[in-house]
């Protein structure tokens, strides 16, 4: 049976992070500098684990990511808004694919513009 309750039409809003406070108008408060840093640190820990495990796309390879980096993933999800988690996971894949494409172009003899070369991560 379909519910005609308007609150069900657009879904319910869940807090962006566990325990996120609401403002007087009902919106969730934006994270402060410390909360953002905690999120970024958790993201970096999760991504370092993925790198060590050889996993590029933690969305597509969700089971492998959970098996090898489950603790780091839980910390990432606990410290970041769910929309941020999704965004960072997708951006990781895009950035890695972009770097691989640039490496292929260089290998084929392409002369990359200086501004692109300057923005690339340094080889370790």
Automatic annotation (TrEMBL):
Xref: InterPro entries: COA6_fun, COX6B-like, CX6/COA6-like_sf
Pfam families listed in its UniProt record: COX6B
Biased composition (Polar residues): 1-14
Keyword annotations of the record: Cytoplasm, Disulfide bond, Mitochondrion, Nucleus
Keyword Transmembrane helix recorded: no
Locations listed in the record: Cytoplasm; Mitochondrion intermembrane space; Nucleus
GO cellular component, one term: nucleus
Naturally occurring in which organism (per UniProt): Patellaria atrata CBS 101060
Chain intervals for the UniProt region annotation (Disordered): 1-34
Similarity annotation: Belongs to the cytochrome c oxidase subunit 6B family.
Primary localization class, coarse: cytoplasm
Keyword Secreted carried by entry: no
Protein name stated in the entry: Cytochrome c oxidase assembly factor 6
Example of a GO biological process term: mitochondrial respiratory chain complex IV assembly
């Amino acid at each position: 049976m379909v519910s005609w309750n308007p609150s069900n039409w657009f879904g319910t809003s869940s807090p962006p992070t566990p325990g996120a406070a609401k403002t007087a108008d009902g919106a969730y408060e934006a994270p402060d500098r410390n909360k953002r840093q905690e999120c970024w640190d958790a993201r970096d820990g999760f991504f370092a684990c993925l790198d060590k495990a050889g996993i590029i796309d933690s969305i597509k390879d969700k089971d492998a990511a959970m098996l090898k980096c489950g603790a780091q993933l839980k910390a990432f999800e606990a410290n970041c808004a769910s929309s941020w988690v999704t965004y960072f996971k997708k951006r990781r894949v895009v950035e890695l694919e972009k770097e691989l494409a640039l490496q292929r172009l260089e290998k084929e003899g392409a002369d990359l513009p200086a501004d692109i070369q300057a923005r690339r991560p340094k080889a370790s």
